[in-house]
Amino acid sequence: MDLADEIDDARARTLALVADLSDQQLLGPRVATVNPLLWEIGHVAWFQQKWALGERGRDDLYDSSAVRHALRWDLPLPSRAETLAFLDETRRRARAIDGREYFQRLAIHHEDMHDEAFAIARQTHGWPAPPFLADEPPAGGPLPGDVELAGGRFRLGAEESERFVFDNEKWAHEVELRPFAIARAPVTQAEYAAFVDDGGPLPIYWKRDGRRILRRDFDRWVELEPHRPVLHVSWDEASAYCAWAGRRLPSEAEWEFAAQGAGAGNLDGRFRGAADVAAFPESDSRAGCRQMIGNVWEWTASDFLPFPGFATDPYRDYSLPWFGTCKVLRGGCFLTRARLVRVTYRNFYGPERRDVWAGFRTCAR
């Protein structure tokens, strides 16, 4: 897929995530963790205009660094039709320019991230799944056990030969790892349910129904899928599970070391949700860990901090404001675009966040 096709592909996914929603839903209720979608799709077009085209636009409306979250519902936003026309105009112009590949890719990946946020908003509000999420993910069963790794010297982060990386991945540097044992798969819903039954907190989209536990999947309640990874747990909840189970979260260096050679798993919204943790054996890393790329974002023990010698990229607010306030997640989820995620990609959220498609795998203490 060439660059112009990727621009079109990202925009097609954005439209597919919002096309079936009403005008009322595009504004939506005020929630601290999600944006009004009418504002957010305009922000996607504004970002493409600013970075891919190199033009100033409606900074007073769409600059997320300047317009406080709580104010975004009260702005004089353009209509749905005007916003969609803005999306189409920036797409057509961005795909036609030359000599700005870095900034075009920055806008594509920015849109990919917001597309995942659009799906998070639909889950948060209890709206139906996006229509393209129609097929149920494959079965595969559990995948118990650990992989024993010898550790040693390891280069953490992205190499300069990579075509596009974000500033917080720069650059690869040597770290020393002690021997460790990491789970072959993330913690499953069945494993987490045992923790809940012993007094652990219910994940945000779980509820008890008599003797059963149900999980909300967008607008429907379903039985737990015992061999699929637990979703929508915070770093704090993941840490509490580890304390209960006598385990620990991996550091991001341990996670990246164990993920070397991992192939793509459940990505790109091919299925309605996360698959069983033993599905996609072709995704195994060289160490034998499965689904490290795709299926569910995985919390690590690490604080989100700059690597040695960090310098901001042109989009200064991508990483810098968040250092020291967030925890690192790795790997991607079933909705993450394959072109965005890689072994070195660092996602980051506050440790209290429960709304993202995040789970975790554990290490032996």
What is the count of structural domains? Answer: 2
Please identify, by name, the CATH architecture of the largest domain: Alpha-Beta Complex
Average per-residue pLDDT, rounded, comes to: 97
- Tally of DSSP helical segments: 9
Strand order of the largest sheet: 11-10-9-12
- What Rg do the Cα atoms give? 20 Å
Helical/strand content category: alpha+beta
Q: Any idea of the CATH class of the largest domain?
A: Alpha Beta
**CATH level-four homologous superfamily name of the largest domain:** paralog of FGE (formylglycine-generating enzyme)
For the sheet with most strands, the description reads: 4 strands, mixed
Shape: globular
Give the oligomeric state of the chains in this entry, treating copies of one chain as homo and distinct chains as hetero.
single chain
Here the CATH topology of the largest domain equals paralog of FGE (formylglycine-generating enzyme)
Strand composition percent: 5-15%
Distance between the termini: 44 Å
Please describe the structure with a list of short key phrases separated by commas or semicolons:
single chain, 365 residues, alpha+beta, paralog of FGE (formylglycine-generating enzyme), four-stranded mixed sheet, 9 helices, 13 strands, globular
